[in-house]
Design a protein that fits this description.
The protein is of the alpha/beta class and about 500 residues long. The protein has three domains: about 130 residues, Methylthiotransferase, N-terminal domain (Rossmann fold); about 260 residues, tm_1862 like domain (pyruvate-formate lyase- activating enzyme, Alpha-Beta Horseshoe); about 80 residues, Nucleic acid-binding proteins (OB fold (Dihydrolipoamide Acetyltransferase, E2P)), CATH 2.40.50.140. The strands form six sheets. It has a six-stranded parallel β-sheet, with helices on both faces. Strands 17-18-19-21-20 form a five-stranded mixed beta barrel. Bound molecules: iron/sulfur cluster. The site of iron/sulfur cluster has 10 residues, from helix 7. Iron/sulfur cluster (SF4) binds next to helix 7.
Length: about 500
């Protein structure tokens, strides 16, 4: 009988992609996915360490899983991803029932870790099967590192494409790790040094996804625009930049939209802006974290750019790429942040007029420079107040951004039924009624600028690019009606 795996993913898009790769490996070992952890043979949590809150959620989930394992001791429980890398000692103490731990740089080792668990059980032992990136740290000899990179690269290349059904949108990793060492961030510790993947591997993945029907891909990297790869190493090669990579992926037939996240302001060069302007498939959307509107705070964060440089970049982005949508990230209450610093952040957000911002309350991450050297001296109630002020500004700004789009026509990739439609369907199901999509066929999709649009249309539009006339707006969503359904998408028609 097929074994079953329950895999729950916490955190960022990189983790979503990692989970897909892990499930692919496990499928080759005969595991089928299940939604019910209580009945699963293998339970894996792919974890995030970027904030304390994310780790707390994992511990709370582990509590529920422990109860299930007490009832079914044969269940194998594993913690994978950033928390396994960062807090394996804490986890060993707080979750002694865990059988397996694996850092994000070692996910290719999961089959051998599972074999270890089985061997232990056969010998009636319980020891933790563990594989961590720090076992091959930044000091690991170059030849050994190359071997490790090649084996983890093989995992990306072995990516299982779903045999049934279509892929509409997908992620492709272009880079692993990060070398920036912002003082608040654990990523350089959990995901190791920055290294870019060979461009031909990225293009090959894009082709495979296009063959499966993918129309939109998102290139992923911690500092995606820092991508660079030396081709023909040892000979008269050249360095492939991120702008070059966009050009190469753009040539893949069938892919009609290209996005990329997350950009790092300090490394952002104008050739990427020109690529966004000149390559019709590259969406006019830039997610570029500022983190603070105060130079003093940026300095303590070691962000390697000033507020002025950040703003100049965004001004150039608007000049070069007309109609570009901007999104940013901000941390409130970082060490030493004063009310004046916070006012500067609010002022920056007002000036930039983002499409959207993502904001987080600072929480110290063990092992980071900020945790070791900077006091976490902003009281929680002050962090909370600043967070609420920024959230209120964000809501006002998003509403204004969306209201300015009312009356316009936008290109939307119809992704599926809207949340309201799905809820209505679930209610019908729970009342024992037959599902009647026709009554609630509200679809949802995104524009090239990443705005969410809800509109009424038949199921046959899912997976299509549709022209939508925007009729109303809230801070979160645009509402509209089908204007025309193009034969070919805009990006291809101008090629
Ligand atoms: S750039 Fe800074 S915030 Fe982003 S992943 Fe690297 S260290 Fe973390």
């Amino acid at each position: 009988m097929a074994k079953s795996v329950y895999l729950e993913t916490f955190g960022c898009q990189m983790n979503v992609l990692d989970s897909e790769l892990v499930l692919g490996q496990l499928a080759r070992l005969g595991y089928a996915s299940t939604e019910d952890y209580r009945r699963a043979d293998l339970v894996l949590l792919n974890t995030c360490s970027v904030r304390q809150h994310a780790e707390d959620k994992v511990y709370s989930r582990l509590g529920e899983i422990t109860k299930a394992k007490q009832r079914r001791p044969e269940m194998v429980v594993g913690i994978i991803g950033c928390m396994a890398e960062r807090d394996h000692d804490g986890l060993k103490t707080k979750a002694p029932h865990v059988d397996l731990m694996c850092g994000p740089g070692n996910l290719n080792e999961i089959p051998s870790l599972l074999a270890e668990v089985v061997e232990d059980r056969q010998a009636r032992r319980h020891s933790l099967a563990i594989a961590l990136e720090q076992d091959h740290s930044r000091r690991t000899p170059a030849a050994e590192r190359t071997r490790i990179y090649d084996s983890i690269e093989a995992l990306d290349l072995s990516r299982e494409m779903p045999a049934d059904g279509r892929v509409l949108q997908s992620y492709i990793r272009v880079q692993r790790g990060c070398d920036k060492f912002c003082t608040f961030c654990v990523v350089p510790f959990t995901r190791g040094p920055e290294r870019s993947r060979p461009p031909e591997h990225i293009v090959e993945e894009a082709r495979k996804l296009a063959d499966l029907g993918a129309r939109e891909i998102t290139l992923l990297g911690q500092t995606v625009n820092s991508y660079k790869y030396a081709e023909g190493a040892g000979g008269p090669g050249r360095t492939v930049t991120f702008a070059d990579l966009l050009q190469r992926v753009h040539e893949v037939e069938g892919i009609e939209r290209i996005r990329f996240v997350t950009s790092y302001p300090g490394d952002f060069t104008d050739d990427v802006l020109r690529a966004m302007r000149d390559l019709p498939k590259v969406c006019e959307y830039l997610h570029i974290p500022a983190q603070s509107g105060s130079n003093a705070v940026l300095g303590r964060m070691k962000r390697q750019y000033t507020v002025e440089q950040y703003e100049e970049l965004l001004v150039r982005a608007r000049e070069v790429v007309p109609g570009i949508s901007l999104a940013g990230d901000f941390i409130v209450g970082f060490c030493g942040e004063t009310d004046e610093d916070h006012e500067r952040t609010l002022a920056l957000v007002e000036r930039v007029r983002y499409k959207n911002i993502y904001m987080f309350k600072y929480s110290p991450r063990p092992g980071t420079v900020a945790d070791r050297r900077l006091p976490d001296d902003v009281p929680d109630e002050v962090k909370q107040r600043r967070h609420m002020e920024l959230a209120a500004l964000q809501k006002r700004m998003c509403l204004a951004h969306h209201q300015a789009m009312v009356g316009r026509e936008v290109e939307v990739l119809a992704e599926g039924y809207s949340k309201a439609a799905i809820k209505a369907q679930e209610a019908e199901q729970s009342r024992g009624q037959e599902i009647s999509w026709k009554r609630s066929d509200q679809l949802t999709g995104r524009t090239r600028g990443d705005e969410i649009v809800v509109f009424t249309g038949p199921e046959s539009l899912i997976g299509e690019f549709v022209r939508i006339r925007v009729t109303s707006a809230t801070a979160l969503t645009l509402h509209g009606e089908v204007a025309t359904r193009p034969e070919r998408v805009r990006s291809l028609s101008v090629l």
